Task: inverse folding
């Protein structure tokens, strides 16, 4: 039971797993919206680290202020990215990021 | 009494962790984009629960309001607007599956060695709650020490509103681009 009691290390491990799942999503998917979902997972894992350190290691609210900024900028990023994805979909007719390769030619 | 409380907290913590990881795996592995969006919903709610668990009430509320109420709705809108036909969007993997898997595993091992390298000295499982709450402290911090980032954020939000509206706008059908009146 002692090993199972949640500590900062467990929370860091959870955040690492979440980051890796987000990374896998970004690397393996071809649909742009799903890639965006993976980016959101990675941002969330970074946020968990900020809040966990702020609450459990250094008793200081600065980490939470930074987490607040990250949440706001994640919302900004999602809005602009989806606008760009809509533009790509309108001009290419696809959301597959492997098909949008006109810069290569 | 103390032991019972600790067992209960442990069970709650691992339930939250299960919700987060299980739904994140749904996001990563599901074949349908709607399932991925729902997985993202439960992941975000689980992260909010984790924030509440470690005593960051303000962040939990913010997570629900902005992520679940804003970002997730945007993502679902994006998934629905870019749908070709009425059928569900089938997701395909790109390239051979072992490449992202190997990259992710390397990253995971790197993170694990980083975490295992230090003794984090974390005795406090659940930090004690301040009577005034953390919201007041965060608000004071935003208005004093982090005043400049706060103002820059408001300018960035304005820029994002304008940029997103400009990018997502449709061209006028009666005045196509390149046609002179």
Result:
């Amino acid at each position: 039971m002692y090993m199972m009691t949640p500590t900062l290390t467990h929370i860091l491990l959870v955040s690492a797993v979440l980051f890796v799942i987000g990374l896998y999503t970004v690397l393996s998917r071809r649909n742009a919206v799903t890639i965006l979902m993976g980016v959101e997972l990675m941002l969330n894992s970074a946020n968990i680290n900020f809040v966990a350190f702020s609450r459990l290691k250094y008793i200081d609210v600065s980490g939470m202020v930074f987490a607040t900024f990250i949440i706001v900028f994640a919302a900004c990023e999602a809005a602009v990215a989806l606008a760009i994805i809509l533009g790509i979909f309108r001009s290419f007719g696809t959301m597959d990021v492997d098909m949008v390769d006109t810069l290569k030619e | 009494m103390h032991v019972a409380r600790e067992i209960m907290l442990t069970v709650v913590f691992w339930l939250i962790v299960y919700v987060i990881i299980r739904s994140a795996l749904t996001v990563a592995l599901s074949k349908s984009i709607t399932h991925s969006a729902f997985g993202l919903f439960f992941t975000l709610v689980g992260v909010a629960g984790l924030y509440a668990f470690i005593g960051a009430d303000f962040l939990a509320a913010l997570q629900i309001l902005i992520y679940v109420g804003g970002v997730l709705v945007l993502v679902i809108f994006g998934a629905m607007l870019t749908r070709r036909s009425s059928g569900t969007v089938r997701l395909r993997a790109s390239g051979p599956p072992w490449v992202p898997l190997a990259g992710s595993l390397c990253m995971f091992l790197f993170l694990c060695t980083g975490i295992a390298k230090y003794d984090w000295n974390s005795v406090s499982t659940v930090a004690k709650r301040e009577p005034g709450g953390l919201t007041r402290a965060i608000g004071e911090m935003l208005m004093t020490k982090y005043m400049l980032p706060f103002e820059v954020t408001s300018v960035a939000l304005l820029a994002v509103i304008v940029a997103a509206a400009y990018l997502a706008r449709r061209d006028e059908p009666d005045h196509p681009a390149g046609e002179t009146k």
Observations:
- The first helix of chain B runs from residue 2 to 29.
